[in-house]
Amino acid sequence: MDFERHCAEIVTQTELLADGLAGADLTARVPSCPDWSLGGLLRHLGGAHAWIEEVVRTRAQEPVPDPSRDVNGDDSGEPPTKWLLDGAKRLSATIAEAGPDVTVWTPLAPMPVGFFARRMVHETLIHRADAMLAAGREYAADPDVAVDAIDEWMELDALPQHFEFNPAKRDLLGPGRALSFRATDIDAAWHVDLTGDAIVNLRGDEPAAVTVEAPLTELLLIIYRRREPHGVTGDADLLAFWSKHVTFG
């Protein structure tokens, strides 16, 4: 997916979220984020959109206060879909106006705005899944977006600075430690190699100590820790250990 598609998908994913929430109970608990109500989840997502919009609009080079951490609020009434959509449209427009190459602050390091365009698509995609789980509604991810979300997850997980932020992540590395994730409904697979001195995540189907096979949307939710793993063959303990050490997204 390119930069223009990422800008558009921020809005598209928010529209899908809004459409799926008609009549939903904002007091419902979110199974995949158990400390949050559905209302709190929506405040988090809308706050995240506003936060990154400010970062990009101001071309921030230092951290900007993050309103998405405060999920408290009024859970009565209808879901705040207009507020969410307005915020997503502002974010998309601000990112598009900046262009993909302007460097701004990110929690990882200064990076081009294109990083946030992609990140906020997937932030919205996955929180849409959280919201549908809370509301008891169906969820499906467009294949292009789901593949891009898994690609990004794998790329972020392999960043070497994780070892500085969380030295315990080095415990993942060891002989024979490799994982394979295969979509059963499209031709897509990912390989996680933990056998060396660094995490190496690649596209493709390679032999592994543990393999997860599932339809693409299910695979996305398993990798992002929104579903319990199924379709597992091999070392399930390694899969659980790997999943425990992936704490973003």
Written overview of the protein:
The protein has 249 residues and is an alpha+beta fold. The protein folds into 2 domains: 3-139, dinb family like domain (Four Helix Bundle (Hemerythrin (Met), subunit A), Up-down Bundle); 149-244, SCP2 sterol-binding domain (Nonspecific Lipid-transfer Protein, Chain A). Helices cover 46% and strands 14% of the residues. The protein contains 8 helices and 9 strands. The chain has helices at residues 3-20, 38-57, 81-98, 113-135, 143-157, 162-165, 216-223, 236-244; strands at 29-30, 33-37, 103-104, 111-112, 178-183, 189-193, 200-203, 210-214, 232-234. The strands form 3 sheets. Strands 7-6-5-8-9 form a 5-stranded mixed sheet. The chain has a two-stranded antiparallel ribbon with strand order 1-2. Helix 1 (3-20) runs parallel beside helix 4 and helix 2 runs antiparallel to helix 4.
